[in-house]
Design goal:
43% of the residues lie in helices and 15% in strands. It is built from eleven helices and eight strands. It has an eight-stranded parallel β-barrel with strand order 1-2-3-4-5-6-7-8, surrounded by six helices. Strand 3, helix 3 and strand 4 form a beta-alpha-beta unit. It is globular, with a radius of gyration of 17 Å. Bound molecules: 2-phosphoglycolic acid. The site of 2-phosphoglycolic acid has 13 residues, from strand 8.
Amino acid sequence: MTQQRTPFVGGNWKMNTNASQGISLIDALQDGLKGDLVEVTVYPPFVYLREIAARCEGSDMLIGAQDCWHEPCGAFTGEISTGMLKDCPVQSVLTGHSERRHVIGETDELVNLKTKAALADGLVTVLCVGETLEQRENGQTDAVNESQIRAGLAGVGKDELDKVVIAYEPVWAIGTGKTATPDDAQDAHANIRALIAQMYDQRASEAIRIIYGGSMKPGNANELMAMPDIDGGLIGGASLTAEDFLAIVQAGATQAV
Ligand code: PGA
């Protein structure tokens, strides 16, 4: 990656940890984090956000939510608004994670509404995109990324883009132990960056962080993040072990200096 972009490493805990495991993990991460070369954000389950945010007060680590709802309040049983998230307080949110799209059934339109609501509330919004195995085998990787990004960012102005991070997460690589090769991931990232130049402008495309997700771990983080257009990672499984997650953050820091 280039030095102008601060690496971003996110830990998506998904529906893992209980209260005490979450606290132990966050404490271990805070103890182990050194320096601020990398923007580190963890995404615990909703119910632990408040307690974890309180424990992280004053630390460089940011706290985020794995999802949000796009209306500010009302009859949306079970949903959590961006205003409620800010109350915790959290600073970031994931939108369009592949498990939300493919397991829960979220559409591009819903992902767009959530993305716009999160940005309107000033949250750093990590828009997740990526192709399924079938789409990859049919040569549709770039087309899928393009349509998910165009739809996800519809109505998002250039002035809001500094709060947007794009996570390229090939669905077939998430939680499977399979990782895109650094060259394949770099190709997808470079095409996403070119798309942002088309949709906005060159400056925006050079500034936006595009991170990779899908079985990133200490053993492959360095070579992935060494690619010019890979600005960090969104980490699932390996974010549940402090040692592994800190090693990935360290890989990001190496690229920043
Ligand atoms: P993984 O998950 O690292 O377990 O593949 C990544 C993600 O879903 O964000």
